[in-house]
Design a protein that fits this description.
The protein has helices at about 50-65, 105-115, 115-120, 130-140, 145, 155-165, 170-175, 190-195, 215-220, 235-245, 295-310, 315-325, 355-375, 395-405, 415-425, 445-455, and strands spanning about 5-10, 15-25, 30-35, 40, 45-50, 75, 80-85, 150-155, 180, 185-190, 210-215, 230, 235, 250-255, 260-265, 280-285, 290-295, 330, 345-350, 385, 410, 435. With about 450 residues, the protein is of the alpha+beta class. The strands form seven sheets. Strands 16-17-15-14-20-21-22 form a seven-stranded mixed β-sheet, with helices on both faces. Strands 3-2-1-6-13 form a five-stranded mixed β-sheet, sandwiched between helices. A two-stranded antiparallel sheet has the order 4-5.
């Protein structure tokens, strides 16, 4: 296989989408364009504006084809999405926003259909966070449109289909709390037959596979001068994980931060996961089950920013000893519907005279405590690698270091998803080893105990 010199990556997150170009010799991003990932209100339900994303992607690729150039394309997207292709190759129904809530009767009917956690290691999640719930809702509520479906594709592979015309599915997205996959066995779950969709599921391909070259009409539009292969693509959190699976011995943990904080216990087992607390199995790019947990930490950070203004990390870090002493606390949940403390609503404690910096210090402690809880639930061991936006927050990192008493290593760069997707093209981008967070002088053990007791734990 010819190793490319530069790789363009289409990286669609829940909040933002971007196209980046990576230099395969250095592993660095040398060009980037980004856009918000908009949700249209309907009809028939809230859905992603995929045509705007498509135009954005083509415009970015056209610009990058001129400068700096690229000779392969890879793809990564958020999970919990599937695309229903009709006979004309266009979606038979809009691509559903996974945060949409379904009518109660449809929810109850799906609850009776979904497999046991011991089969799928997918917890029952809200809205369409279980892709099986999306498919059941679309089939039940829109039977005429669903009857026109000829193929079901996981979300990264939909974009690969648009670029190549080749339909495929892939295990990191199928194994991403969909209810559709058996992680232990590497096969479809019983739900696929209960929904009557086995014949509609596109063939499963490896994330590493080059599905084909860019279609001629798209090659012409974006100005490519030679054939460019498009790789199958990967779920974004698993893209972040992939870089660490190469050349690092387990056990270790990865905390991938974005809209979601997704935690992986590499080298762990599935035997002690609790579906009531948002633990699950993800499936890595090699098809192996990985104990995982999550909460919507990035979304919670956005909510806190809207309420309290921008975080000043050094100021929040300086305020932490006083916050710990005064026991100013934030309890979960800010964003409901996921995470290790279901049924709890957010609450401030001892915050009557707290300054903005003290509130942010308490918020960073909250995010660290939530992450620590998630890691404990999946039996994480060894060093903890933090990537994404939280990796540049020293208040969060030092709180994690105090809580875990393990090495907490901040990895450089805003996200690992694009670099992880670039690995699919057969290269190993060189990444800096990251910097360990220092052990702070303050001790969080009493604070943590009070926080946990406030939650009844």
């Amino acid at each position: 296989m010819t190793i490319p010199e530069k790789i363009a990556v289409l990286d669609i997150g829940k909040t933002n989408a971007k196209v980046v170009v990576l230099d395969c010799m250095t592993g660095g991003e040398i060009a980037e364009r980004r856009t918000p990932n908009r949700v249209l209100p309907g009809p028939p339900y809230p859905h992603y504006d995929i045509e705007s994303l498509w135009e954005f992607a083509l415009d970015a690729l056209a610009g990058f084809a001129r400068e700096p150039g690229f000779d392969a394309i890879s793809i990564t997207t958020h999970g919990a999405s599937a695309v229903l292709l009709g006979t004309d190759g266009a979606p038979a129904l809009p691509v559903l926003d996974y945060e949409h809530r379904y009518p109660e009767d449809i929810q109850k009917a799906y609850a009776a259909l979904r497999p046991q956690f011991s089969e799928t290691f997918s917890p029952a999640l809200s809205g369409g966070l279980n892709v099986g719930a999306q498919l059941h809702y679309q089939k039940t509520a829109f039977p005429d449109e669903f009857a026109r479906v000829r193929a079901i594709l996981t979300y990264p592979q939909y974009w690969a289909f648009r670029l190549t015309g080749v339909a495929a599915n892939e295990v990191t997205s199928l194994g991403c709390h969909t209810d559709l996959w058996r992680p232990r066995d590497g096969s479809y779950s019983s739900l696929v037959d209960k929904l009557g969709i086995r014949d509609l599921m596109a063939p499963v391909r490896s994330a590493f596979d080059a599905l084909g070259p860019v279609l001629p009409e798209i090659t012409q539009r974006i100005g490519l001068t030679s054939p460019v292969p498009v790789h199958c693509g990967i779920h974004d959190s698993n893209a972040s994980l992939l870089a660490h699976l190469i050349g690092r011995e387990p056990p270790f943990a990865v905390v991938s931060t974005g809209t979601w904080v997704v935690n992986f216990a590499v080298g762990g087992d599935l035997d002690h996961l609790d579906p009531e607390r948002d633990t699950l199995a993800n499936v890595d790019a090699y098809g192996r089950a990985v104990p995982s947990s999550r909460f919507m930490g990035g979304r919670e950070f956005e909510i806190l920013t809207a309420e309290h203004g921008r975080l000043d990390p050094p100021a929040a870090l300086a305020a932490m000893p006083k916050v710990i002493e005064k026991q100013v606390m934030l309890l979960p949940n800010i964003a409901t519907g996921s995470g290790p403390f279901p049924g709890h609503g957010r609450q401030w404690i001892n915050d009557a005279d707290a300054s903005s910096d003290e509130r942010w210090a308490a918020a960073c402690l909250y995010l660290a405590l939530m992450t620590e809880t998630c890691l404990e639930l999946i039996g994480a061991k060894g060093p903890v690698l933090v990537e994404g936006p939280f990796s540049s927050n020293p208040a969060y990192l030092q709180a994690m270091r105090s809580l875990l008493r393990q090495d907490v290593i901040a990895l450089p760069g805003s996200t690992g998803t694009s670099q992880g997707a670039a690995l699919l093209a057969g290269v190993s981008p060189k990444t800096k080893p990251g910097s360990p967070a220092p052990m702070p002088s303050w001790d969080m053990r009493r604070y943590r105990a009070i926080w946990g007791n406030s939650l009844g734990g």
